[in-house]
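Appendix B, Record 12. Input sequence as logged:
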Amino acid sequence: MKTKSVHRSADFHVCHIAGFQTRRPHNAARSADLEISDTGGLETGATIWRKRAARFAMLGLVVLAALNCCFAQQPAESLYDTNKFPPPANLTTQQDHRLMMDLLGIKSLRPGANPNNPNATNAVNLDEAKANPYSNLPDPLVLKNGDRVTSAEMWRNKRRPEIVEDFDREIYGRVPTNVPSVK
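Logged structural output:
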């Protein structure tokens, strides 16, 4: 194909090839490396090779997907040997509970609320008058020593750490010093 440069601007050549007019940068491949694309424009050899590589990659993915389907349908017993693993232990609920307590180093459990005996020390509280509706919460702007918070700096440096300490101790709880490791 013969390429004829009709106009030369600062950045582009205008080329006529087989009746198609197109522009290509000066630094593009030479006219011998240009081909007409499916849409009628010119493409360099690098662009053509990129398209071919993309088609080849798509073909490879299709082949891999087909092979994966073939190998994925193997029977389960051929995938691993069941004789390597010990059989599962058949424990009763009490045996399993005792085993877990022994592994965690727990000697005894604290008894929960007793709903059957209202005179027991751990009886369930069903009387709303005995329930605390949070009426005795401390004033958040009064320090533990009784002084009032008067500035943002006093809040940040004194009162806020007191409240955080109360939450750590009373709400969140602390992590015991000798926590057993879990295996």
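The beta strands are 4-8, 12-17, 20-25, 35-36, 42-43.
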